[in-house]
Design a protein that fits this description.
The structure holds 2 protein chains of 2 kinds.
Chain A (H helix, E strand, L loop, with lengths): L5 E11 L4 E13 L7 E8 L8 E6 L1 H46 L1
Antiparallel strand pairs in A: 1-2, 2-3, 3-4
Chain B lengths: L6 E9 L5 E9 L5 E7 L7 H12 L3 E5 L10 H10 L5 H16 L4 E10 L1 H12 L5 E5 L30 E6 L7 H13 L4 E6 L16 H18 L3
Parallel strand pairs in B: 3-4, 3-5, 5-6, 6-7, 7-8
Antiparallel strand pairs in B: 1-2, 2-4
Helix pairs in contact in B: 3-4
The chains are: A alpha+beta, B alpha/beta.
């Protein structure tokens, strides 16, 4: 295939390239013929930095089934992470509220 | 002449689109000629080793051959990484490709021992690009499109870089066209190849399409599982017969 199946998403994080870690700016998901895997068409994931030379790239080629499994794993991990983040935000908010109450009480008592 | 012809190969710098310097790999057969020329337009995986080898293959078969790096503006690196960067930037503009390829055609035409004929050859996105070039310019004498995807494009696929569906350019095709396709391909699909063929007929263009069963995309890519040995051998014979007919001096 010579498809136009390409999805590009902004990215903020780090990826491990050929030799070292680099900051990423884009995640690119494509479905096209494999360049390296001995497979026909594959889901290709590229994590790149558009502002750095082309070597700033971490890439994988996955079968469609592997990509679906990865998606499920990502969905699960992200859902759990969001619960944890919500709990953390709730806990911080409660701590801030308690601190504010303590301040008010201290002022009243003074 | 010995059975195996000698050849020389090297890199040259062209003045590409908008005056940008780009590199091209060139190969020419040993001897004074006259030789026809072939301009290779590389595929989506970039200025890859496969295309460098095919450039030499044409020289080995008696053609002055040139393959320009259409992705050079993305920077230096392994062709895979360069191609990935180009993909992340939404590909290259068709107009830029035409400008760069025109420089490769001009280089071929300026070579000593050239017989005055130039063929253009590409696979995958390069097949699409070769066809666009032959519909945009008038300085090539034969065009080979190997399984070029997105020759037939929907309106939703058009953008600033690819503003026109190539099939709409068919009326301006300046030379005979050879197309080779696998019937198991989906880009282009057999239905899209039908559409292109119907337009070629409607416009009264000289063309020959060869469509192989048991094959999909990338029939000639001997390093990939896409390779189909029988269809590839037959396809290469079709390419050389086509260029032999239309590029003879």
């Amino acid at each position: 295939m010579c498809t136009s199946i390409v999805e590009i998403a902004p990215a903020d994080g780090m990826a491990k390239g050929e030799k070292e870690w680099f900051p990423v700016t884009r995640s690119v998901v494509a479905y096209d013929h494999a360049r390296h895997a001995l497979l026909g068409d594959v889901i290709t994931l590229d994590f790149i930095n558009s502002d750095l030379p082309p070597g700033a790239r971490a890439a994988v080629e996955l079968t469609l089934e592997s990509a679906k499994a990865l998606r499920a794993a990502l969905d699960k991990a992200i859902a759990e992470a969001e619960v944890e983040e919500a709990e953390r935000a709730d806990s911080i908010a409660r701590q801030k509220l308690a601190a504010a109450r303590r301040k008010v009480r201290a002022r009243v008592e003074a | 002449m010995l059975f195996y012809r000698g050849l020389t190969a090297t890199n040259v710098t062209l003045t590409g689109d908008n005056g940008t310097p780009i590199t091209a790999y060139v190969a020419r057969p040993e001897g004074d000629g006259p030789f026809p020329a072939v301009v290779l337009v590389h595929h989506l995986p970039g200025w890859s080793e496969l295309y460098i080898e095919m450039t030499r293959k044409f020289a080995h078969n008696g053609y002055i051959a040139i393959c320009a790096n259409l992705y050079e503006r993305a920077g230096e690196g392994h062709p895979d990484d360069v191609a990935a960067k180009v993909r992340a930037d939404g590909g290259i503009a068709d107009a830029q490709m035409v400008g760069d390829t025109a420089a490769a055609v001009a280089w071929a035409r300026a070579q000593p021992g050239h017989n005055g004929k130039v063929g253009i050859f590409g696979s995958c996105s390069g097949g699409r690009h070769a066809f666009i070039y032959a519909c945009t310019k008038t300085d090539v004498d034969a065009c080979v499109d190997l399984w070029g995807g997105r020759v037939v494009m929907g309106k939703e696929e058009l953008n600033a870089k690819t503003p026109v569906s190539p099939v709409e350019m068919t009326k301006s095709l300046c030379c005979p066209l050879l197309g080779i396709f696998g019937n198991e391909d989906r880009a282009p699909s057999p239905e899209q190849v039908d559409q292109h063929e119907a337009e070629l007929k409607a416009q009264g263009k000289s063309y020959e399409f060869h469509r192989y069963d048991g094959a999909g995309h990338g029939i000639f890519y001997y390093h990939r599982p896409l390779y189909r040995v029988e269809q590839a051998l037959d396809g290469w014979s079709k390419v050389f017969a086509f260029f032999g007919k239309h590029l003879a001096g």
